[in-house]
Structure formats: C-alpha cells, structure tokens
Amino acid sequence: MAAVDVEENINVSADESRCVFARYVCGDMRPLRVWLEGKPVPVRFVDWYVRGATQPLFLSNPLGGLLVISGLMVESPWMGLCGLVGLFFSTLTAVIFRQDKGCVESGGGGFNGLLTGLLLAALSPDPDWHGLTIVPVIVMAIMSTFINSGLSGILGKMELPSLNLAFNVAVLVYTTAAGTRDSYPRLYLADEQQLLPNQTANLTAADQIDWIKVLQAVPIGIGQCYGCGEAVAGGLISAGILVSSPMVFYHCVMGAVIGIGTALILGVPLHWVYSGACAYNSVLGTASVGGVFYVLTIQSHLLSLFCGVFCALLWAGMTDVFAMLNLPVLAFPFCLGTLLFLGTTSESRALQKVPLSHVTYPEEHRRRFNRNALVPANPD
Q1: Under a CB-based contact definition with an 8 Å cutoff, are residues 237 and 222 in contact?
Q2: Is 361 exposed, middle or buried (0-12, 13-18, 19+ CB in 10 A)?
Q3: Cα-to-chain-centroid distance, residue 24
C-alpha cells in the first residue's frame, strides 16, 4: 500500500464525531497515535507492528490488527507464526532503513512481509513447525520491504499505489527459484486450479450447489486475503475490518459476493467457490476503489463493483495460465485490475481520487471531501 500520511492540521472536532466508537475506535485510532507521540521507539514499534496486520485491507487500526492476528492463529498457529515473523522483520527493516515515516507509523512498512510469511508457510511442501521454513520467510520478508519501496517510487510518480505487488513478486520469485511442486499442501493447488469449461452446466445446477457453503464462503473469501480458508478465521478477520472501517467492510462483503457469483456463472469447480479462493481478488479490488483510493460517492461505489467483477474475471483467466506453470496466481489479478481502474481519468468531482499522501480511511476521506478539505491529486 502507498505511504499513509495523516494531514495533521485537519482534525475532526468532538461535535463531528457521532459516537465514542467513531472517535476512539474506528479508523486509525488517532487518540492512541497522539498519546504515543514522544514515547520510546520500542513502545511505538508495537503499535506500528499491530497496525500492519490490517494494512492488507488498506487500514491502520491496532484493535482491528489484534482481531486479524487472532484469526490467523485460529486458522493455523504455524502459518500465523510465520506471518508474524515476516511482519516483524519487514517492519524492522523499514525502520532501520528509514522508510517513509507516515508509512511506517501506519503499519504500511510491514504488511508485505506478513503476507509473504503466511503464503510461504502455506505453499511450503515441508510439514508444519519445520524450522528451516523460517529462513526464507525472514529473507523474503526483508526483500519485500525493498521491493515495495522501489515499486512505490516508480508507481508513485504516476500517483498510483504499489498495493501488495511486493508480496506477490517476493513469493513468486521464491517459489519459482525453489522449483515447482507436484502439488501444494494447503492453498492454490495448481492441478486443481484449471477451470473446467465442460462442467459449467453441471456445476451451476441449483440442486448440486450447497448454498450454506456458498454463504460461508463470504467470510472465508475475505479471510483468503490472508490465505485463510476457515470460516472462523474469516469471521475474526472480517470483525477486524468492521472495527477499523464499516465502509471497507461493506465493500469487502460486496467483493466476496461478486467473486462468488462470477465463479458460479463461469462454472468454476465448486471447491474453489466453497474455499473462497475465487473471491479474494475481487474483495481487495472492490475495497480499494470503494473509498480508499477514491472518495466514496455513488459513482466510485459503482466503479468499485465493476472493478470487483473485472478482478474476478482476471482471476479466472490468469488461473489457467499460472496452472500451466504450476505456480500460484496469488493476488496478481487484483493488482493488475485495480491499477487499471485507479488509472481511470474523470473531470467529475464525484469521482475524485485521494492523493497518496492523504490516504487514511474512507470515513475520513468522506468527511474531508464534504468540507472541501481534500487536496486534488493533480492540482492545476
């Protein structure tokens, strides 16, 4: 995600806050950030570290981060540990090499390391608690910080965020270098990724679809943004998103529904529907356009839904291509599709991009937009 820098001279007054939740819990928990100013770096580092757990969904909330971490540990203690190790070393690297201050303090310096650790553990052919797996997790988490910095510098010149491209590049490079496997133990099974066009009619027949599992796939699809395939883990992660930003949570749910619906229409094998793997790219795409990098309006909301559909279609198409190479598709469909939609140009004020240096969370963007306090991305 792009560097997040809160505009300090714009504060939400007490009378603007609807409730205690909005003032002290929702969003970036600004009162906590203010309280931590001047505290020792190790104390502040814990805050940066926990915030990083929500950054894959473009948020920065320590309470939400704790719920996300709980979901990861419920899913798999081993995967959760690898993810947290990756988050620690990625954040530490960003601090040591003095990456953008706003990005580090919002948790944006480490989330690529978190995702890298989670997916390397999930894709590893070694059994759980295999100590040597930690070595590539640490190395590639550190590498993801540098990759993200380079990508941010390049894409930032075009006023585009780097999203989670660094994580995708780091994991793809390592899995390619380590050699392809006959199958992956947990996720993204390459031999099962191939879509079966001749089964479209059969797999979409109403009498063969377990609609309870389809419903469960909504929170699971949100959890798949972290590589989690269990309903309980997805529920905890969804709760963390809801605490951080109800607007992002709403768009995540819409993205999951879009991804699942698109997969059913295309006749994707039902195990991909039930596992939520068909939905996470559309979840990320819908959430990013729906209020994070665009101010939330009716127009940007509709744009986010189209982005979700496009990301779901890209997932279906790119899955076949990556399956030929026996490689995981990861979140490349989300990155490609969302960057295209974020490059959309419009002269309408109702479709206004949020400058990367002003990205916080959708509710704050909307308040500042209503006060005409949001600086245009490309001022004349």
Answers
A1: yes
A2: buried
A3: 23
Output b/e per residue, 157-194; b: 16+ Cβ within 10 A: eebbbbbbbbbbbbbbebbeeeeeeeebebbbbbeebe
Cα–Cα distances in angstroms (integers) from residue 65 to residues 55, 111, 284, 315, in the given order? 9, 11, 17, 27
The pLDDT tens digits of the residues spanning 189-237 come to: 433 444 433 344 444 444 488 999 999 999 999 999 999 999 999 999 9
The CA distance from 148 to 166, in Å, is 5
Whole-model pTM: value is: 0.86
Joined together, the tokens standing for residue 281 give 């790219």
